[in-house]
Specification:
With 347 residues, this protein is of the alpha/beta class. The chain contains 15 helices and eight strands. 53% of the residues lie in helices and 14% in strands. A six-stranded mixed sheet has the order 1-4-5-6-7-8, with helices on both faces. The longest helix has 24 residues, at 295-318. The chain is globular and about 60 Å long.
Length: 347
Amino acid sequence: MNQRPRKLTEAQAWRAIAESNGFGLCGRLTRLIDNDLIGDELERRDVQRRIREVARMSLSLSVIDPAEPIPGPWSIDDAVYYADHSRVSHSMLEVFRRSVEQYAARFVTHTIPEPEPTAAMNLGSVTHIAIFEPDEWHQRVAVAPEINRRTNAGKQEWAEFVQGAGDRLIVDLGEALLIQGMVAGVRRNSLAQAALNAAGRCEQAIRWIDRATGLPMKGKADKIAGELGLLLDLKTTGDVSPGDWARSVANWGYHRQAALYMQGASDALDFHGEFVHLVVSKTPPHECVLYALDAPALELGRLENQRLLDELAERSDLGDWSGRWEGRVCPLSLPKWAFTQSEASHV
């Protein structure tokens, strides 16, 4: 009569990690679960999560230059960085938060193309160059002259300008003047100027592994001023006052971005300073304020990120990219302001 194999303790289960690696380990741990060999002291869910972590780590390490360790800084071209969907970024996680199906179509099955950069995105990219990398302005930016593109001659002149600009980002004269004003506004803030002058690398790409899920992650910091202990992130807005900016942070999920980047910078660079939004107004006189989110805001961002990463990891494992509201009728009510507005109109 065959004896039932004894259950493994946590220490014994994890001894398998020292004796094996990669996908072989994943298969071994999976068999332990399937055969009910994991004892009560090590919950199945936790083991399955660890299996995901090992599998993703193995996959990441199999395609990574060993000269650049994970976690750590990442030397990578911008085009390659943004085209890489094997690692989860803040912007990708925000897409997943809004729509599971859109995330899958853009980053998993690639059945829909990436959207073209909007005018606002282009302006933001050029503003980053002007503030953080001004020495590269002429190599990366082309300012378009005033051309009447409604005429045949103007269309020809524009085509020649675009061809001559090559890969450079194009802005018109009005946009260039707006950027010039925002740069001046930033420079009037003595701490902002000190941070920009401080030693540190701009547009620093980093990569790390999320500890809870094993998902490979990536991020790109505008600047890490190590000697000041600041991780800078530039934002442009219409109103830099604290109340308005707090609403913008909540509406756009900037607290999630801050929490994610702080975790990444800690894991990849052993950075333990402050995440600071360098906020500059898009309207004259282009006031600039530096904001650091408080601990409750960062903790909320961390918790929201982790919930999203947990769901993303589970869906990745199951191959389940169905919408969150698929297959059911969803009850819907109007926001409170709609009722208040209706009542006010009858007064």
